[in-house]
Specification:
This protein is mainly α. It has five helices and two strands; from the N terminus they run αβαβααα. Strand 1, helix 2 and strand 2 form a beta-alpha-beta unit. The two termini are 27 Å apart.
């Protein structure tokens, strides 16, 4: 989760800083295999989101999916199909659905999180070590 909005002054989530963060965090992960990062963010600027997704281009083994965008698409279709009401189409609903991805860690879908926000603003996360420990090698 990339927190921007009200905490932008507390944790640098600029594109430049996120590039450095991923460079450090993803070091040697190409030795392990393909990685898909699920991005959620309160950022509404489409340019910023596109630039963050583009950071994966520096890694043959990394893909970044914009989960918020996928949720908006599905929610819009569900509303058009009459499955949900139009009052569900708001950022709180999208956040809650995205939060489900963050709480599925017990079933093996999500192994761990790369988070940049006010309360978790580390310089780097050792993804290689976490993956090796999680996957048992």
């Amino acid at each position: 989760h990339l927190r921007r909005g009200d905490s932008i002054d507390d944790c640098d989530t600029s594109v430049k800083r996120m590039k450095e963060y991923l460079s450090c965090s993803l070091e040697n992960t190409d030795l392990i295999g393909n990685i898909t990062l699920l991005m959620t963010s309160d950022e509404e600027n489409k340019w910023y989101r596109k630039e963050i997704l583009g950071l994966a281009d520096a890694y043959e083994h990394v893909t970044i999916l914009d989960v918020d965008d996928l949720i908006w698409q599905i929610a819009n279709q569900a509303m058009m199909d009459g499955v949900i009401h139009d009052y569900h189409l708001n950022n709180y609903f999208v956040y809650e659905i995205g939060d489900m991805f963050r709480t599925w860690s017990t079933d093996g879908l999500i192994k761990f999180y790369l988070v940049r926000r006010r309360s978790i603003c580390t310089d780097c996360i050792d993804v290689e070590t976490r993956l090796r420990r999680t996957l048992g090698f």
